[in-house]
Amino acid sequence: MPYDLVIVANRLPVDRVTQPDGSSGWRTSPGGLVTAIEPVMRANDGVWIGWPGGTEEGLEPFEHDGLELVPMSMTQADIEGFYEGFSNGTLWPLYHDLVAKPEFHREWWDSYVHVNQRFAEKAASLAAEDATVWVHDYQLQLVPQMLRTLRPDLRIGFYLHIPFPPAELFQQLPWRRQLLEGLLGADLVGFQLPGAAQNFVRLVRQRVGHKTHRDLVYLPDGRTVRASPFPISIDAAGFEEMARSEPVVARAAEIREALGDPRKVFLGIDRLDYTKGIFARLRAYAELIEDGQLDVEDAVFVQVAVPSREQVEEYRILRDEIDRLVGRINGDLGRIGRPAISYLHSSYPREEMAALYTAADVMVVTPYRDGMNLVAKEYVACRYDNDGALVLSEFAGAADELRQAWLVNPYDINGMKSALLEAFNAEPRETTRRMKAMRKTVTQHDVAAWAASFMSELSDVGTHGKAVKPA
Ligand code: F6P
């Protein structure tokens, strides 16, 4: 059946789960993207194409919670070449300021082209005449052009969830021109920040030679492509509601008690990724204890590291490094029943995250580079009492909006130490003043507003296809 709206993302918004009776089923993923897109999908008879994880073959399209989902299978070779290889071994580090060294392998690129082509073909086969297709993220940058070739009638939007690098870094890519041309298949290319959109337009002018003016690219065939920023957000009301709920309030109290009722709780929650700056942040915290400026009787640092991309070498190395660091810090600085760091290598449902946010006095988000960082926004959304301090890296996209956080340069260990200490010692009046301002930003610009503004801009710019209905 043809669809008026097709969402194309590397992952489906569901995870495989084993039911109590042993059969397998699906559960909606904790990420916020599905919350944002669901209402537009429902209003427009939409479908979502993506990988369900694993190598299962022959999965049929299915419905989950009223959403139409089309699984894309991947072979072990696709996973190694397209996903772990080109997406996460080449593009991920290159787009994140070379925090790790990107690897360039021609076989990975071939696999990336092959998988992008399969996604494009699937989208082309599902889209109704003049439909809108919204393609997501760095794994699928060739899909817009491939799709345009297959189906010139479509209106195509693309959104990059991660940073888009400065020209100086992007130029290293042997396949730089193909990626730019891939993105130019879209009518609208969305980025987190204005600087990323400008990087893209500049590269298109320099590398592909198209005429550009401000946020517009003029293609020789008469088409125009717009590149604009759309900073992504969260379901702020949903998080606040959860944080106010009785079970979450009770769980937060239980967490503090289990931690030994320290005066202050620091919290970090990140995917276990080298871009997140977990190692440096824990070192800075440990030094404050060594220097005698913090005491393990007074404070504890809860660090949740969500397992991620565990087959990729860099991620395994990082895990070992953090395991060793936490062991050493706790061994050297902890006392009985009073570890300096309470470290959890696990992923948790949203309710548990809300309880952790509620239990934390100082939230520490210090990535070296991050497209946005939704954890920072989730923390703010949960602090309905206007208390709690946020220490935030200047290099997270969220820092553009959350100006009242204690902003830090994560490469500057002394600077981070000062910020952690200031946030720890801040007067309630000061934390309230800052939190109030940040809460205003997060509640006004939530994920529904993000999706609506992308869709409305796409409806304005596209010369092909018909406009989508607002949710
Ligand atoms: O936004 C960045 C992103 O890479 C998403 O595209 C992705 O779904 C998420 O982080 C988690 O990573 P992965 O899908 O590789 O587990």
Structure description:
This protein is α/β, with parallel strands linked by helices and 471 residues long. It contains 16 helices and 18 strands. The protein has helices at residues 33-43, 76-95, 106-126, 143-150, 167-170, 176-183, 194-208, 236-244, 246-258, 278-290, 313-333, 350-359, 374-382, 413-425, 428-444, 447-461; strands at 3-11, 14-18, 24-28, 46-51, 62-64, 67-71, 127-136, 155-159, 188-191, 211-213, 216-218, 224-229, 264-271, 299-306, 341-345, 362-365, 389-393, 406-408. The two termini are 21 Å apart. Bound molecules: 6-O-phosphono-beta-D-fructofuranose. Pfam families: Glyco_transf_20 (PF00982). Belongs to the glycosyltransferase 20 family.
Topology:
Elements: E1 3-11, E2 14-18, E3 24-28, H1 33-43, E4 46-51, E5 62-64, E6 67-71, H2 76-95, H3 106-126, E7 127-136, H4 143-150, E8 155-159, H5 167-170, H6 176-183, E9 188-191, H7 194-208, E10 211-213, E11 216-218, E12 224-229, H8 236-244, H9 246-258, E13 264-271, H10 278-290, E14 299-306, H11 313-333, E15 341-345, H12 350-359, E16 362-365, H13 374-382, E17 389-393, E18 406-408, H14 413-425, H15 428-444, H16 447-461
Parallel strand pairs: 1-4, 1-7, 4-6, 7-8, 8-9, 9-12, 13-14, 13-16, 14-15, 16-17, 17-18
Antiparallel strand pairs: 2-3, 5-6, 10-11, 11-12
Bound molecules: 6-O-phosphono-beta-D-fructofuranose (F6P).
Q: What is the helix fraction of residues, given as a range?
A: 40-55%
What is the average per-residue confidence, as pLDDT, rounded to a whole number? 95
Biggest β-sheet description: 10 strands, mixed
- By secondary-structure content and strand pairing, the structural class works out as alpha/beta
Biggest sheet: strands side by side, in what order?
5-6-4-1-7-8-9-12-11-10
What is the number of helical segments per DSSP (H or I, 4+ residues)?
16
